[in-house]
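Exercise 7b. Backbone tokens:
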């Protein structure tokens, strides 16, 4: 199982995927907001979303778990 981690400290602005959804490498899975900028977080591999560890408006630190993939 692969993990997607937060690339920076910020707030979860939107979650672009659902559990069970197939994604391709490079697809945007979450958008973070930091200092009024929107930062997309992309999938680093093809796979199926197994779980989502955050909710919209959650605060995350760099390195926090956002979601997991089944390979």
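Sequence design result:
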């Amino acid at each position: 199982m692969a993990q997607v981690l937060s690339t920076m400290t910020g707030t979860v602005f939107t979650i672009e995927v659902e559990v069970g959804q197939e994604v391709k490498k490079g697809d945007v899975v979450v958008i973070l907001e930091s200092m009024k900028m929107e930062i997309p977080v992309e999938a680093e591999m093809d796979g199926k979303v197994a779980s989502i560890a955050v909710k919209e408006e959650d605060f995350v630190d760099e390195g926090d778990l956002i979601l997991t993939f089944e390979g």
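Instructor comment: The radius of gyration is 11 Å. The chain is about 0% helix and 55% strand.
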